[in-house]
Every structure is written in C-alpha cells, then in structure tokens.
Specification:
The protein is an all-alpha fold. It has 22 helices and no strands.
C-alpha cells in the first residue's frame, strides 16, 4: 500500500459499521419484510375486471396499466434526488404513504381516471425502492456487499411470499371477497408507515447536505479521498459544493463505465429488468385470458405468486454464496438464464393449460431473482459507497425509458394497442435477442481467455490480457481488493 493510500485510510470518515450494524441490518430487513404484506396485491386484476369495479379487459390492458410505465419514468429522477437530499428515511415514509393511497383508491375509486392515479402512486412506491436497495450499503463494508444484498433481497421476497399465501388462503379457504382483502392490505400499509418511523438516517448523502461540514473540518467524502488534490481546492467553496460534487461524480462514472464487469451487469439491469417488469405488469391479464374463472375461489394468483416468490427468495439467498470467476463466466451465466427465460415466455404464451402457464411464470421469476443480488453486488463492489445509489438510479432510469418506449409501441391504445397474447410474443422475441447477444459475448470472452493463456511471450501476454477492470481504482478499500483477488 502506498503512503498516499495509507494516509487516506487514516482520515476520519463517517462512522464505520460498529457493533450496532447487525441490529440495523436486521431492522432494515424486518422493515423490508413487513412493507410487503399486501395480500390483495395478487388479485388486483381480477378485482378490477370483476363485479366490484367492472372494468373491461381492454380498459385495463390499454388504458390503466400503461400509466404505470409512464408515471414511473416521470417520478424516478425526482424520487432519486429526494432520496439523496433527504437521506433515505423520508423517501421510505413517502413510499408507505403512497401504498396507503393505492389501497384507498382501490377501495373507493370507481373511474378509469381514479385507477390511473392509483398507477401513479404505485410508480412512486417502485421509484422509492432505490432508497431501500442502496440504504444497506451504508451499514456494511464492501466485503459484505454480496451477502447483505442477498439478505435484504430475501427479506423482501419472503414478505411477498407471506403476503401471497395469506391472500390465497383468505380467498380459497375463507371465501373472503376481494374488497375485504383490500381493507386488510390497507391495515398492513398503515403499520408499515409506523415502523418506518424507527429507521435511522445516515449522517450524509451523495452530494447534498455536505457543504458546511466539509468546510468546518469534518470528514471528507469518499470522492474527496479518491482525489485529495481536488479536495484541497474545493473544501471551502460552499456556494459551489453541490454542483461541483455532482459534476465530479459524473466524471467518475465516465471512467468507471470502462470496467467490463460493471458495464455488463448494468446492461443486464437495464435490458432484462425492462422485459421482466413488462411481463409482470401484464401476466395477470394473461391468466384471465387463459383461464377466465367465474368463481373467486378458483383464482390462484396468490398461490402462484407465493410459489414464485419462495423460489425467488431461495435463489436470491443462494446467490449470496456463489463463488465463481465472474470476470470469465458472467456472460455465460447471464446468457444461459436469459435463454431459459425466453423459452418460458414462449410456453406461457402458447399454452392453453393454466397450470403450465403458472409453472412457467414461477420459474421465470425465480431465475430473475437469482441474478438480481449478483448484479447488485457486482456493481457495488466496483464503486465507492457514494456512487452506488447513483449508478443504481441511472440503470433503473434507462430501464424505465426502454420499458416506456416498448409500452407506447405495443400496449398503449395510441400505439399498436396489442392484446395480451401478441404482447407476450414480443417479449419472447425480445429475450431471445438478448440471449443471443449474451451468449455471443460469452464465446468471445472464452476465446480471448484461451488466447491469453498461450505460453509464448508470457510477459507480453500477461500485459495484453490484463482486463480493464483490474486497473487500480483508488476508491476500493484493501478488503475489497482482497475479495476481487
């Protein structure tokens, strides 16, 4: 370690994870679990199409559901900036308030406009998830990123599982009507708002709330430690600090995107998550087409969501213990999983058996949830804590833009206005194209690796084969370097 690096590690920073970090992580996971208890969520589409609301399938498919993609794109950036400026906790409170608004509208709303506002509030809850997903990285060291990402993700998925099982039991065994299920969901969301009050707020954020402390001599930001010369020139410029910090972060991102692993997993986040959420938005409508049940007791949406979530939670938890050479095998893993997902989408679209459709859906969600914590950890270990949420937000924003473009073209009534079956054929073609690209990249990486292992001119080969992401990055700690080794 150089003298400069030793000096940077000895500088005072925000309090490192102490003996309380385990309790904080546990409470955050408990919060993630409890806020998912909404047993009526699995039955929203049957509820809207049923006698309670009596909307038509065309209205739900081409007028109500597309609003979710549009509003999500609009609110994502403001919510992300509020997440940074307000330091997580107030945004999580806003998420809980939005959940309460959703269920109030579902219970008392009667018009298409009211349901469109419901989709708007749902988009706010989705945008606020970036606060939860990035919050945990402020509690632990980089060497624990992959494990903590799997824990927090598993807590959320187990909450969804419990919620789905509860909803299915109420409908099938108890004969509870959908409207009563919505009242139960409203009660859980109110309790979720209550437990949000006890979350702790980090002491600083990415580029807001730091002008005064820096000039008064407290700990510099991680970007300052990465570039101490810049820190010397900017510590006493409070009037320009926020703008300078943001611009410096963007410059850092321009350098970071040259890292192959960060670039690959960011592309996966953008393209695969866009297709995944489009499938998720419309799958309940597909089930209504494949099996239009007239008896609510025979609607098994909750059980299917429970099974898919349980598999996803297991896969997400197992992903935290996967140890392979990601620099060599990432493309192959992503390509294989994406090819399987394309086949599952084709099965869901072409079958007339609702149980085959259910099984394909369960496997599709489980395969996606397996890759999510891997993507989070691979991105997070390439960055400082300051840049994690920024990269997650940018990736999600680009995915939302892509999702919105696809929605406008194929789903919106002002575009092609396709029914649900043709839409799923489009999703199948989309995932097939992604799988071909990933597998082609895997072949290229494998050939390059074999060529680099040739014995001739070992010194030159070693220099030529050094991947871009092995260039020393100043923001990585010694613990993180050992993990990468």
């Amino acid at each position: 370690m150089s003298t400069e690096d030793e000096g940077s590690t000895k500088q005072p920073v925000e309090p490192a994870p102490n003996q309380r970090w385990k309790l904080q992580v546990f409470y955050l996971c408990f919060y993630g679990f409890m806020t998912q208890l909404r047993p009526g969520e699995s039955f929203i589409t049957p509820y809207l199409l049923g006698a309670d609301k009596n909307f038509t399938r065309v209205e739900v498919t081409n007028e109500i559901t597309p609003v979710l993609s549009y509003s999500y794109m609009v609110v994502l950036v403001p919510i992300f900036l509020l997440t940074d400026y307000l330091r997580y906790k107030p945004v999580l409170m806003l998420q809980s308030l939005s959940y309460i608004s959703i269920w109030l509208i579902l219970i008392f709303g009667t018009s298409i406009l009211a349901m469109q506002f419901m989709e708007l509030f749902y988009s706010i809850t989705m945008a606020a998830r970036v606060a939860y997903s990035s919050y945990i990285f402020s509690l632990v060291t980089p060497s624990l990123y992959q494990r903590m990402a799997s824990y927090s993700r598993s807590a959320v998925l187990m909450g969804v599982f419990t919620s789905s099982v509860l909803g299915q039991l109420c409908v099938t065994v108890g004969g509870v009507p959908f409207i009563t299920l919505n009242y139960i969901s409203l009660g859980f969301t109110v309790f979720g708002l209550f437990i949000t009050l006890f979350l702790e707020r980090p002491r600083r954020s990415l580029f807001f709330n730091r002008a005064e402390p820096v000039c008064n001599g407290t700990s510099p930001s991680e970007l300052d430690k990465m570039h101490p010369d810049n820190y010397k020139h900017t510590t006493c410029l409070p009037s320009r600090w926020r703008d300078a910090a943001l611009c410096r972060m963007l410059r850092e991102l321009r350098t970071i995107v040259r890292q192959p692993q960060l670039r690959l997993w960011s592309f996966w986040w953008i393209f695969n998550s866009a297709g995944y959420y489009l499938m998720l938005y419309y799958v309940q409508i597909l089930w209504e087409v494949v099996y239009p049940a007239k008896d609510n007791r025979k609607v098994y949406n909750g059980g299917v969501d429970a099974a898919s979530t349980l598999l996803g939670a297991i896969a997400s938890f197992a992903a935290g213990f996967v140890k392979i050479r990601w620099k060599l095998w990432s493309e192959l893993v992503i390509g294989t999983v994406t090819a399987v997902q394309a086949g599952l989408l084709l099965l869901m679209t072409s079958t007339s058996n609702i149980w085959l459709c259910y099984v394909a859906y369960v496997l599709f969600r489980g395969s996606y949830q397996f890759l999510v914590p891997l993507a989070i950890s691979q991105i997070a270990t390439s960055l400082s804590k300051e840049l994690c949420a920024l990269v997650f937000g940018i990736n999600t924003f680009f995915a939302t833009i892509l999702k919105t473009i696809i929605t406008i073209i194929i789903a919106d009534k002002r575009g092609l206005g396709l029914s649900v079956h043709p839409q799923f054929y489009v999703y199948f073609a989309y995932f097939t194209l992604l799988a071909v690209l990933y597998l082609t990249a895997a072949v290229y990486v494998s050939i390059q690796h074999r060529w680099c292992k040739k014995p001739q001119e070992p010194a030159l080969a070693k220099e030529l084969c050094k991947p871009l992401d092995e260039v020393p990055v100043k923001e990585k700690t010694s613990d993180l370097s050992s993990v990468e080794a």
